[in-house]
Amino acid sequence: MKSFRFLLIFLLSSWAVQAQELLTSISISTEQLQLDQQRGGSQVYAELQRTMQEFMNGRRWSSDNFSPEEKIKLNINLLLTKSSAQGDIEATARVQVLRPVFGTSFETVLLNLVDKNFNFKYQLGTPITYNDNSFSDNLSSLMAFYAYLGLTYSYDSFGPRGGEPFVQKLNNLTNLAQNSGSGWGVISDVRSRMGVSENLINQNLQPMRDVYYDYHRLYLDKMSENPDATRKGILEILKQIRQINTLRPGAASIRVFFDAKSEEIISLLDEALPAERQQAFTYLSTLDPIRTEAYRRLLK
To answer: Would you call 24 helix, strand, or coil by DSSP?
Structure first.
């Protein structure tokens, strides 16, 4: 409880302790590579993992200061699917961002994204350098994108639209990368980086950022004090999302929310009244139809 209060203060103000914001863990799997690529590249992949992790954890991404226990947990798991002798690498990335829940030992998932176009170039001894105002290469922009995205959603979950400074950085980053890099997609593709970034600045979709604050600070953080009120609050959140969905059906920000929260919502509503679970199923199966079968567990 004490640690959580300190974290909230950090995110709303600045302490004198000098420390970076992220606690990033990078893992790299070569299971899908051909044997010759695995053998020849083992040293490259080990250095790549270390270099990526040091870049994320060693860089200051904001003007705020964090002590070690308040750092934002960011996990990036890379599954390499292609690797050439020239250093061209194709991969699928799973990106998760975690946040503590007040009054518990539980961590909630803020982001749970799969990026099927995590493609870049890397060779032994190559440092990762990044500048907010220019495009250097795909790898540095990919890392910066997920750093700023994680900070956006984390800050938004602690204060109303608290991640605004990072939203602006994301918008600039994706505009630069789209013109110079590859795999960034288009705004209309809800699973592309461009689609996710655009939704964060789209005025019609700003209420989805408020959803992150309401869900976490008004309801989830109070679960241990009043679980019944939290369950009712989750239903209110789903009503809010239903209204947002009428403006932009199936928007990227809505998809991002349910990719992270679907299993958690099912668990939170497990002990809700039958009428509440039925209402939740109606909302969820409409808003997130690809998981309809999973949501049927609410109808037990």
So the answer is: strand
Indicate the burial class of 125 (C-beta count within 10 angstroms; 0-12, 13-18, 19 or more). exposed
Block means of pLDDT (10 residues each) for the chain, 300 residues, are 46 47 95 71 89 96 84 96 91 96 91 96 94 96 98 97 96 93 89 96 96 96 93 97 95 97 96 96 97 96
**Residue 128, SS3 per DSSP:** coil
87: left (phi over 0), alpha (psi -120 to 50) or beta: left
The partner residues of 100 in beta bridges, in order of sequence, read 107
Return the residue matching tokens 């999973």. 294
DSSP one-letter string for 246-283: HHSTT-HHHHHHHHHHHHHHHHHTTTS-HHHHHHHHHH
CA-to-CA distance for 278 and 282, rounded, in angstroms?
6
Nearest CA-CA partner of 21 in 191, 155, 200, 201: 155
Alpha carbon of 68 to those of 72, 90, 149: distances in Å? 9, 33, 20
pTM: 0.91
